[in-house]
Every structure is written in structure tokens, then in C-alpha cells.
Amino acid sequence: MRAVLLFFALAVPALSQLTLLPKPASVQTRPGSLIFGPDARIETNIDEPRIAAATARLTTRLGGPVNLRIHIESPGNPVQSLDEDESYRLETTGHEALITAPNPLGALYALETLLQLLTKTPAGWTAPALVIEDRPRFPWRGLLLDSARHFLPLDVIRRNLDAMAAVKLNVFHWHLSDDQGFRVESKRFPKLHELGSDGDFYSQDQIRGIVQYARDRGIRVVPEFDMPGHSASWLAGYPELAAGPGPFQIVRTWGGYNPALDPANPNVLAFLEAFIGEMAPLFPDQFFHIGGDEVSDHPQTELQARFNRQVHDILAKQGKRMEGWDEVLAPGLPKDALIQSWRGAKSLADAARLGHDGLLSTGFYLDYTEPAAKLYLVNPAGNRTLGAEACMWTEYVSAENLDSRLWPRTAAIAERLWSPAVTRDIPDLYRRVAVIDAELDQLGLRHNVNYRTMLRRLAGSNDTEALQTLTDVLEPGSLRVRHHANPNYTQSTPLDRLVDTARPDSATARQFTAAVDRWLANRADAEANREIARWLTLWVANDAKLRPLAARRPALREAGLVSAALAKLASTALAGKPARPIPVAPIAEVNIAVAPAINKLIVRGYRPAYQSYPRSAQ
Ligand code: ACM
């Protein structure tokens, strides 16, 4: 009996070793595995263009067809909506995968799960035999991308939609206008994009293409046109809509309060009625986001509240539900308006009390560059909370480094929104994040590729080893750090420095910090000690290589300064005497992510293990 149990323990992949992200609601493993043979075919019980496209993508990714049966109970809505059933069942047996879902959306997600289960072996693609029954915790799992502050080309949008689909996010909130840019072609009011965008805008055909691309992946597209504030780019072409005297220009800097549409001017309402009438069919989703945030430093609350009600009614005539940032919440706002919290989760409780559904974005601002572990534990709660959105504002983000600020961290948020609330194991999250990181890389995301490109550009050479050894333990400073360091950033400031290259949530720093924590918990842990000593020695030696390069190359000057600070920390820790911590403020807007752990070693009197070892005789 024991022997039999042992056999099964070896043969059946342990549940804890599956690398699914987000984690499904329920997984039952079975003995054995699925191996797709050469006789593969895909059967679907209904003709559904989204499923046909998704199975074609799967076949391409796997380099050949697979044995797959898909049963969908009903065809789904012509425009994807919030109330569709997204559940699915996926069963893998000896030779085939079976998917059943009430709606095509579930089948799309099941295909993503299947992709995550498959590994290539000499015998072919294989997956553990199992049954997954899965459904999302929240129906609204969004990501905001800000195309206004820095324009994001179509290929950037498309590949990030691919990544969203891979982790079962289902709403692309597209921030399309702000003080710094108006990014959609308007045929009714062409001066919006002509004078508001520097030529960087999406044509209506391109918008339709993105909406279709998203639909094919089970993703809704909710446009945001921010009003009445954050609207300087509208006023560049239509100054007569402003609350004050013009002329107006696109704003090139960040923050601050800029001119607004005049909420009391009937011509503004007439303009918006025509504009929304043009945009409503272009964005078929039921929801339409009107922004409404940060209108003025002297809020005229009743004025804005009336404006919001009027815009609500314009949208309702187009069959749309209004959505706005939490500033729009006021008594008298029609109850079907959806409130998106960004200033504090309390606004969702306030919204619910007034009868509104809500979305949480407080805590999910990706531009604050917080680690996945922190984002992961932000928990949307409340009886009228439809879900949440991660927000990627692009003041300090370019098309080149966008992916590295989104991925893999956003996968942690995706799991928070999909998986049961009890899923909270941080080490297991990071284990699976490392896998999804590589999968997204395969899918064409550029968080890794562009990191290396940016390192080569800084180094001015293909030899980036020393620079990468440094940059791997750095993280970009927070939004606050960046703004304080340089309030003169503009839209055309190149984002190609060390701080733009460094990535949030350094994996190397996490690994080093874990070794430090192991050693602090047990000073006799020789393996942890040796790992620590190897890293510290590496950083000191790396500084000796990097600083001469930095002295010759202006693009590396900041790297030289940061490297010197890291080397000082590392050599102090290696000196083996307890000392005061070395204060480390951000240098060149960059944080040394290993500094807190090194300072713990310094304070606690770390002694490197190698000091007690004899030198090797050579
Ligand atoms: C916002 O961040 N102003 C919504």
C-alpha cells in the first residue's frame, strides 16, 4: 500500500507545482497525463469567430494542431458585456482536452489555461491529466493604459492586449485624452486631433481594429475622454469651450491644474452631445468613461455635479452607462453611474451607500512602481464592487519601457481579481510570476527584450555585463521621487536614462534579501552566508569595472554614481564590523533595491564566511 502511494506521489504532478496564473477556482489532478499525438484535430460545436481565431492562435503557438473538443452552450452577446458567464470547465485526459463553457468567453479563458499547462517534451506537447472548474471572482478585471501623456503605438497596444488575455484580464480602459494629448480622430471636430495631438492619434479605422482585436481575446474596450478638467488638448483647437480666456496649447509638463471645459456653457454641452454621438458607435462597449477628476483647485462642486448629470443624460441617450473617477460622486448623480476609486477605497463605500457600483483603483497604480507582493494584497471588497483596474499612467513611461512597468507585476493584480480571495501565498505567487514572465516573453512582450536594448544603448556597446549587474538590483524611483528630482520633465524629455531602464520589483534584490533573512534567522546557515558574500563581492568588483567606463561615457555617469554607492554599502558589509546603517536616498531617481538588506547586514555585524576559509592553493 505504501509503495502504491509512493508511486502515485511521484507520477501525479503535485497540485502545488502547477504554474497556472491566475490560480483556478478548483483543480483536481488525475493520474497520468495528456500527450497530444500526431492525429490531432479541433472540434467546436458552434461556429464562433472568436473561438476559431483563438484555436488558430493556439495552433500557431504550439507549432501544429492539437486534439481539442470545445462545447459552448450559447453564442454570447454581439458586444461583450459585464453580465456574461465567464466560467469554464477544462478536462485533460490521455489524448485530448475537453472544454465546456456556457459562453465563448469561458472557452477563451480555458484555452489560455491550457496553454499554461502545456510543456513540450520529445513525445510532443503534454499536460498533467486534470479537471479544472473555474470562474472569476470579479466580472470587471481591468487595465488602464494612458495614451495621452506618451502616445502608445498600435503594436504596443496589441501586444499588451495579448498579455492581458494571457492572465484573464477583460477590460482595457483606454485613457485617450488629457491635457497633454487628444488621441482619437474626430470627423465632426477635426481640430481635436489635428491641433491636440502633434499628429500622434489613432484613426477611427485603427480604433475599430483595436476593439476587434480585444474582442477576439475576451476583452472589452472602455474609452475615457476626460472632462471637464484635463482637457487643454481639446482647447488647443476649440478655445471657445474653455472656462477662461485662451489661446490654449497642449500642456507639455506634468501635474498642476490646467484650463477646463466650461461646465456652465450650453455650447459645451451641445459640443459634447455631438462628440459623444460620434464616439459612441466607435466604442461599442456599454460603458463610457468621462474622467471627471481633478477639475480645479477651487472646486465648484454643484457646477460640476450638474455638468456630470447632463453628460450622464447625453450618454444615456446613446445607450451608454457613464463611468467616472470618484470626484463625480455626488448626491443626485443617477444611480447607474459607475464610480472608479483612485483617491481612497472609502469612496467605494460612499458610492455603494448612494446606490452606485464601484471599481477599485486605489492601491493599483502601477506608476508608483510598487512590488507585486504589495499590489497582490490590495483586496477589492464591498457588495457593489464590480472589480478593479490597474492603472498605468505614462508621465514617466514610454512606448519602449511600458511593458517592463506592466509585466510581470500586473499578473499579480490579475490573480487578485480572478482567483478566490483566499489565494494569498506570496512565495508561491513569485514562483508562478517567474514562469508567466517567460511566457509573456515568448508571446512577444518586450519587458525583457527592451531592457537589454536600453542597456546596450546606455553602454554604447554590446558588452553590458557590468551595467546589467548593477541595473538588475536597481528600481525606478516612485512618481514622487521623479517629480521632486526634476519638476522640469516635459513630454519630450527622453526616457532613456538608467532610471527608465531599471525595472520595478527587482528579482535579484528579492533573491538577495531572502538570503539575508535566512542568515539573520540563523547565523550558522553557511550556505546563506556564502550566497551573501558572493553577491557583495560581485558588486564591489563590478564597481571597479563600471566606474572607468562611466568616467568616459556621459550616458553612464549616473550608473557610475549609483554603482559607487552600492559598492560602498557592499564593502562596508564585507568589512565584518557592526556599524551604523548607511543612509541611501535615491540617486539619479533610482533606488538601490538591495540597500535595506545590506544595511541590515551592516547593523547586525555580518561576517562573510569566506574569511574563515583557507585561500585556495593555486
Ligand atoms: C487620476 O489619477 N487623476 C484619476
Structure description:
- The strands form 3 sheets. Strands 8, 9, 10, 11, 12, 13, 14, 15 and 16 form a 9-stranded mixed β-sheet that branches. Strands 1, 2, 3, 4, 5, 6 and 7 form a 7-stranded mixed β-sheet that branches. This protein has a two-stranded antiparallel ribbon with strand order 17-18.
- Residues 1-12 and 612-618 have low confidence and may be disordered.
- The chain is globular.
- It has helices at 2-11, 49-62, 104-117, 154-166, 191-196, 204-216, 232-237, 266-282, 301-317, 346-353, 372-376, 402-406, 409-418, 426-443, 449-459, 465-471, 479-485, 498-501, 507-521, 526-552, 557-574, 595-603, and strands spanning 26-35, 42-44, 68-72, 88-92, 97-101, 119-121, 124-134, 140-146, 171-178, 181-182, 220-225, 287-289, 321-325, 338-341, 358-360, 385-392, 474-476, 590-592.
- The protein has 618 residues and is of the alpha/beta class.
- It folds into 3 domains: 6-134, Chitobiase/beta-hexosaminidase domain 2-like (Chitobiase, domain 2); 140-424, Glycosidases (TIM Barrel, Alpha-Beta Barrel), CATH 3.20.20; 450-604, no CATH class.
- The termini are far apart.
- Bound molecules: acetamide (ACM).
